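RETRY 2/3 - previous attempt timed out on the joint model. Re-submitting the same 595-residue input unchanged.
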Amino acid sequence: MTISATISVEHLRKVYRVYEREAGLRAALRGLIQRHAQEVIGVDDLTFRIESGEIVGFLGPNGAGKTTTLKMLAGLLYPSAGTLQVLGYLPWRRERSFLRQIALVMGQRQQLIWDIPVIDSFELNRAIYRIPSAQYRQTLDELTDLLELASLLQKPVRNLSLGERMKCEIAACLLHRPRVLFLDEPTIGLDVVMQRRIRDFVREYNRRTGATVLLTSHYMADVEALCQRIILIHHGKMLFDGELTRLIERFSPYKTIAVRLQEPASLDPYGEVIGQSEDRITLRVPKSAVAPVTARLLTEQAVIDLSVEDPPIEAVIEHIFTQQEEVV
Amino acid sequence: MKRNTMRDYLRLLGTFFRVSLLGELAYRANFWLQAIESLIELGTALALVSVVFTYTQSLNGWHASELLILIGTYFLIGGAINMIITPGMSRLIEQVRLGTLDYLLTKPEEAQLLVSIQRLDLWKLLDLLFGLALLVAAASWHGSWPSPLQILAFALTLLAGAIIVYSFVLFLATLSFWYVRVENILVIFESMYEAGRWPVDIYPGWLRATLTFIVPVAFAVTVPAEALTARLTWLALLGTLALAALALLVTRLFWRFAVRHYSGASS
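RETRY 2/3 succeeded.
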């Protein structure tokens, strides 16, 4: 009845065995001979579906299980429990026909070869993926155009800046035209301009090829710009799955009211003052109180300008995570 | 799905070769350094032999010209090992440490193949060529040229020796999946390999056993040299071939087990 989703994950769980090491030389020496294993839960009971062509943002603090989930989806890790399917394949079997259709880009790890021109690393991927020449040329032209690589292709990788290298890394992963793209922190360490470039590219690539994209990022701007839908995880557990705007509605019980006054006055009675600069004051007000407080402000104060805003998404997410910590 | 043809593999190999060559050409001074290093090593080996043979006519049954054949074999196969086998393995260890092995494992190609051909130290070709030249020179000095059968046995044992060393080194490098830093094991292998400059039967029993079965230097150097100097028995030849097949199989199984383990446990 339902068309099978591009990615479907049910009750996914991943438990690591890690060897703990106590501090100190003596313990370290003992560890050479005898190691104590401990189980750590990386991902716990995740369930979600991603349809073809979606761009989904994967959010969570460090260690939440984002990368672990991506790696399971890309076939690098074997799940401890639960089921997952990507393009109808079981990723951990690493069948060639599956691997040919996906790509994993890790912002912090490099695959291009350091000493040789970028184009030659591309050639290597072309040979590994056995990309027919006509298709290779066309894809390369397209990527060169979209990412502005023309001046970079002949340079050795070691002569590139971080941003330039990242563009080339991404291009290298896309030469075989993957239908599913896993991006793990693709913009990490890049300046704002380059971040936007990468972001624009991902959006354009998705639009042109209809590829499904799952990305993790620490930068909210990435997620806000690219993803209609986000999945929020913390301690390996799903906290939220849905549209970004709904996240704010659901998790933020506050709105902020920014007011400019003709003459300074204390606005403490109206709500919690969270910012004050020259003549502009920012208040935090419970959602239910927004209407009455606004009305009172307009009648009781000499207001030049007033606006009601959602709190910044970072603040909302931080709020969620800190709340979670308290629960845990 | 498209079948993988031999041509595809040759093309893959060719591309890796080209990329390695480009990488080496980026540091051209290396070529000269390598040439000097190889010459010094060869010179030292030859000087040692000439010193030894000023005192004796034969070393445990090996005459000077036969020992030169052994040294030629040592350089020939050592060149091949250092050109093709160890560079990829030390890269593998690095990839495990940096986590970039992940990229390799997401490629639609057999990971063991990619790991094994991913890097070539092309200038080690010099060792290989020096070894070959020395073999020819030593054989002509020896007086009698080896028979076609001996040359065939030499080629077979050389191949078997290379396979045994490959399996051994890959096995060691694969240990990095559990114990992340194992570069030192490769260093141990390299220094043990130097012992192969002499026929293993001149060493005391315990060391000979070590060089035969623990660090398989004997199979890489002594056995092929024996083939060329009419010392090899049929039994030893068959044994060597069987051992090569077994080593390849065991390492293959171990590699697959390790990749599964890596997938199951790494972060």
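Chain A has a mean pLDDT of 88. Closing ticket.
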